[in-house]
Amino acid sequence: MAQAGLNMSRRIRRTPYTDRVEAHGVRGFSVVNHMLLPKAFQPDVEDDYFHLRSNVQIWDVAVQRQVQITGQDAARLVQMMTPRDISAAVTGQCLYLPLIDQNAGMLNDPVLLKLGEDSFWLSIADSDILLWANGIAVGHGLNVAVEEPDVSPLAIQGPKAEAVMTSLFGPDIAALGHFRFGIFDVLGTRQLIARSGYSKQGGFEIYLQDGALGSALWDLIWDAGTDYDIRPGCPNLIERIEGGLMSYGNEFTRDNNPLECGFGPLCHLGDDIDYIGKAALRKLAERGPQRLLRGLKFGGGPTPPCGKPFPVTCDDGQVVGQITSGIYSPRLGCNVGMSMVEKSHWDFGTRLYVHTPDGAVRDATVEPFPF
Amino acid sequence: MAQAGLNMSRRIRRTPYTDRVEAHGVRGFSVVNHMLLPKAFQPDVEDDYFHLRSNVQIWDVAVQRQVQITGQDAARLVQMMTPRDISAAVTGQCLYLPLIDQNAGMLNDPVLLKLGEDSFWLSIADSDILLWANGIAVGHGLNVAVEEPDVSPLAIQGPKAEAVMTSLFGPDIAALGHFRFGIFDVLGTRQLIARSGYSKQGGFEIYLQDGALGSALWDLIWDAGTDYDIRPGCPNLIERIEGGLMSYGNEFTRDNNPLECGFGPLCHLGDDIDYIGKAALRKLAERGPQRLLRGLKFGGGPTPPCGKPFPVTCDDGQVVGQITSGIYSPRLGCNVGMSMVEKSHWDFGTRLYVHTPDGAVRDATVEPFPF
Q1: Which CATH superfamily is domain A18-64+150-241 in?
Q2: ipTM of the modeled complex
Q3: B305 to chain A: nearest residue by CA?
Q4: Best CATH choice for the domain A290-371 from the list 3.40.50.200, 2.40.240.20, 2.40.30.110, 2.40.370.10
Q5: What is the pTM of this model?
Q6: Residue A31 is nearest to which of B12, B39, B306, comparing CB atoms?
Q7: Nearest to A107 among B4, B11, B131 (CB)
């Protein structure tokens, strides 16, 4: 079953943009961080994909909740949570990083925003990192406050995003480097805008502080975008897979370590910094990863939706992976997917087989990202 | 919008019973603890309500994930997380308890199962308590393991539940006291069964260990239930509200304290036990709660679905609460709802007004549970 009704309740939180998203005829949601994430607009994901690659879209990604860590021990707490060395980070910088537990199991893959020397946001994927951060803080008696502020990111994505944003906020916004943020005048308030987003088409994220401005901000962007064929959108499954953007809970869980997820180059194993899980991660690094997240192209026509992972086998029938996100790419004329693949079969070019729920066995090849 | 499509992915985990639930034509889901919770079967919630009150139902409540805490410091960690005194709990007992943070904000309201002196399960509502418990454990350097085991509760609820369970497991199951559990032979394995469940109609929960047995367990119960008109069901909104069963994320959040939620009698404030948030809770207790969770009956015909809370006002127009769960009760011939109500207006019999999204203003009365 690809889609069933979602029962609404206060527990599945609406965002500051949900009214607008509904007015645009949203057809489906997912739930991330106890909040609604739009997942489908008309006409369909393929049309949406081509539009994203050539125009500009506005995305309600308020589910990217911020875990705000402030206070004298803030930098210390953030460093305790990640194997990435954050000591050289500067204010105004975004850093993509793995969060791990004492066994080096992945807990999340947020973007860290350094707001100041004693002030950080973790822009999180789908797990309650606020509880993890606060638990560590309480246990260690750290001098920090761990909170979820009223911050709701709105993404402007696509090759025409810069033109739309420049028309509103002037040339300073075009000068922002990748994964850098600045503070801009928006609707008479000061708001944080980063050059970032969950696509490979370029764009910005406005970290709106004050949910009451949600509809006004949406309308501001929308009106500026009409000359650029702006449309409502959402993270696009085809584009995300082709770009190699993984998703916590889908491609990897607490059962995976950061080396398997491709975070190896970001994992600092030296004595000069310390973090939870370092001993476990050092042991894993000595042995080396036994599987890696890989991209697969596979044939046989469009697959059924990937609600349950599709087993991936090799020539002798042994299971060597599972497609955890997969869909047909109309541009490539084949299916694209992501799978953890065992070391024995992770080389690019390896021939594998994907077993889809329609009973088909599809020829597959391990390929480097981006597709 | 009451219902929209839910996009399926691995991240929204299926349960060991989802195949069976889909075969029975489930019409809607919610998402709890990153997992599917069935929310609607045909024909409708009203028919389902009357059936639950007079027969027996089988519910997939695998979303009630277990946070397993074992080891030398297990009891200490559990006590650190709750103001309820657990020192007198005995093995085989279930305890409903509030979990709070250092500010006495509610984090969850699980059922604690005492498996042994050094072994506990927290059967949780919708927040990642595993991360909270593990964060505290790591921070304090406690000698415990905090894990999510392969345990998926299946509930058998309704007045005929005991007859069905006795036919399968013999008279010992009928001898189980309320909120007590025992270990029983099930499908050639030993399984924990408790007299408990998220309804006021009586029943049992089988804490199935080994998800591979999900369909077999479902079929076992189903076959035994055919003589008792068993049906697939789920926590029923009408029955839940009438019974005064609150829901974390709906009726209360981290912004509420346990006194407001009615946990006052369970909150131990003495010097003999210690827990996180005790200082904050003592201050709150000195002043007394300023609002309480209350039941309201309100008229004017069936309400639209309660996707956004309905404001509750008093005679002078001031907002004194909000309906966070509400629905029409065909038995009572009026709407029933739950709301935190300010102290000035929480007395039973107080006349209030509920503002529903259809524009109606409905007369309401504060009433004691159960309705």
Answers
A1: Probable tRNA modification gtpase trme; domain 1 (3.30.1360.120)
A2: 0.97
A3: A8
A4: 2.40.30.110
A5: 0.97
A6: B12
A7: B131
CB pairs under 8 A between A and B: 186
**CA proximity to A163, closest of A21, A299, A55, A34:** A55
Chain A residues touching B102 at Cβ < 8 A:
134, 138
Closest CA to A114 of A133, A89, A150, A97: A89
Let me know how long chain A is.
371
For A41-70, write each residue's pLDDT tens digit: 878 899 999 999 999 999 999 999 999 999
Residue A70: strand pairing partners: A119, A145
* Euclidean distance between CA atoms A341 and A335, whole angstroms: 17
Q: Is the pLDDT of residue A1 over 60?
A: no
Q: What are the sequence ranges of the domains in chain B?
A: 18-64+150-241, 66-147, 291-371
Q: Which residues in chain A have their CB less than 8 angstroms from residue B7's CB? A: 2-3, 28-30, 39-40
Smallest Cβ–Cβ distance between A128 and the set B12, B131, B141 belongs to B131
Contact check, Cβ <8 Å, A308/B14? yes
Q: What is the mean pLDDT of chain A?
A: 96
pLDDT digits (tens, 9 = 90+) for B15-61: 999 999 999 999 999 999 999 999 988 788 999 999 999 999 999 99
Q: What are phi and psi of A183, to 5 degrees?
A: -110, 130
Residues in B closer than 8 angstroms to A321, CB to CB, are: none
Is A148 a residue whose pLDDT tops 50? yes
Give me the architecture of the B66-147 domain, per CATH: 2-Layer Sandwich (3.30)
Distances, alpha carbon B316 to alpha carbons A39, B299, B322, B358, B359, in Å: 43, 19, 16, 22, 18
**Do A29 and B9 count as a contact with CB atoms less than 8 A apart?**
no
Could you give the angle at which helices A129-140 and A74-81 cross, rounded to 10 degrees? 120
